[in-house]
């Protein structure tokens, strides 16, 4: 059933790239503000993050169990589909990449900075003085953005269902909200904690995707890079995927990709996603 829901979600994503109608985040901002104002959570960032993520996750789990218990399987399927669509990344990344690429090609620094902020919210913290600065930062972020907006969500959804997919997106949105707010020491500790939790949740999917990128690209070069970081406790998913996809595309790791290679990078990612969908389909048939 989870595989069918994933296919439906991907079809809807291709047909209606703008999912703002099923991805409202206003409630989440209000939820975060309410927790920040709760006196019993002021000094415990650990408990605050746990409540922020677990309470919505538990609520969704109870709703899905209730629908299953009362024999409302069709409504349960719809509910899981909506949760999966909500858990996917925000915005149309293909459009964002296209706009950013156009600005980079025309060396429009102001437009590139504006598009970069929409493509990668963490970039609002950066300071770029040239087109090359934007190019390097965005091309370094591209593999991870492709990963966190779809692959990691679908991976955990297939294994543990809608609640786990939602839990990951809540962690991601929490991190994004912290980046656009002025933080104090307590909030900084929250940010670090969320980053650690995301690293743990992304550890396995990032490495599986890295191996898959090698299989659909230059395997020996990718494997060489992967060996250096696969068991490293300090390497982020972003760095790992950048090294893998740079090698898989036949580029030089550590140097920004050219604009012309963006199509190749996104193509590698799509082929890797297709490979995993085929693997999941085979497992479903065998099972």
Relevant terms:
single chain, about 290 residues
SSE ordering: HHHHHHHHHHHH
Give me the Rg, rounded.
Answer: 19 Å
How many DSSP E strands?
0
Q: How many helices in DSSP terms?
A: 12
Mean pLDDT: 84
What gross morphology would you assign? Answer: globular
Structural class: mainly alpha
Proportion of helical residues: over 70%
Number of domains: 1
Terminal-residue CA separation = 12 Å
Percent of residues in beta strands: under 5%
Could you explain the architecture of this structure?
The chain has helices at residues 2-15, 26-37, 45-69, 73-87, 93-105, 109-119, 131-160, 162-179, 185-216, 219-229, 237-248, 262-286. By secondary structure, the chain is mainly α. The chain has one domain.
Question: In a few lines, what is going on in this structure?
Answer:
With 287 residues, the protein is mainly α. It has helices spanning 2-15, 26-37, 45-69, 73-87, 93-105, 109-119, 131-160, 162-179, 185-216, 219-229, 237-248, 262-286.
List the helices and strands and how they pair.
Layout: H1 2-15, H2 26-37, H3 45-69, H4 73-87, H5 93-105, H6 109-119, H7 131-160, H8 162-179, H9 185-216, H10 219-229, H11 237-248, H12 262-286
Helix pairs in contact: 1-4, 3-4, 3-8, 3-9, 4-8, 5-6, 6-7, 7-8, 7-9, 7-11, 7-12, 8-9, 9-10, 9-11, 9-12, 10-11
């Amino acid at each position: 059933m989870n595989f069918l829901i994933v296919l439906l979600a991907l079809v809807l994503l291709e047909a209606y790239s703008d999912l703002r109608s099923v991805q409202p985040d206003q409630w989440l901002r209000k939820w975060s503000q309410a927790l920040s104002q709760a006196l019993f959570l002021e000094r415990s960032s650990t408990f605050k993050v746990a409540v922020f993520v677990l309470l919505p996750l538990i609520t969704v789990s109870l709703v899905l169990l209730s629908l299953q218990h009362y024999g409302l399987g069709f409504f349960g399927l719809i509910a899981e589909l909506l949760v999966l669509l909500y858990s996917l990344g925000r915005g149309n990344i293909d459009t964002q990449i296209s706009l950013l690429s156009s600005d980079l090609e025309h060396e429009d620094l102001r437009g590139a900075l504006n598009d970069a902020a929409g493509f990668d919210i963490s970039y609002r913290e950066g300071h770029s003085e040239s087109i090359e600065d934007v190019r390097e930062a965005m091309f370094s972020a591209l593999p991870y953005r492709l990963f966190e907006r779809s692959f990691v969500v679908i991976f955990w959804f297939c294994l543990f269902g809608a609640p786990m997919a939602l839990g990951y997106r809540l962690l991601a949105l929490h991190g994004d909200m912290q980046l656009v707010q002025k933080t104090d020491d307590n909030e900084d500790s929250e940010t670090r904690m969320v980053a650690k939790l995301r690293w743990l949740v992304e550890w396995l999917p990032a490495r599986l995707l890295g191996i898959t990128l090698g299989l659909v690209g230059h395997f020996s070069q990718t494997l060489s890079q992967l060996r250096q970081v696969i068991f490293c406790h300090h390497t982020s998913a972003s760095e790992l995927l950048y090294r893998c996809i740079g090698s898989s595309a036949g580029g030089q790791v550590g140097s920004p990709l050219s604009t012309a290679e963006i199509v190749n990078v996104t193509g590698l990612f799509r082929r890797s996603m297709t490979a995993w969908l085929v693997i999941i389909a085979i497992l479903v048939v065998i099972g």
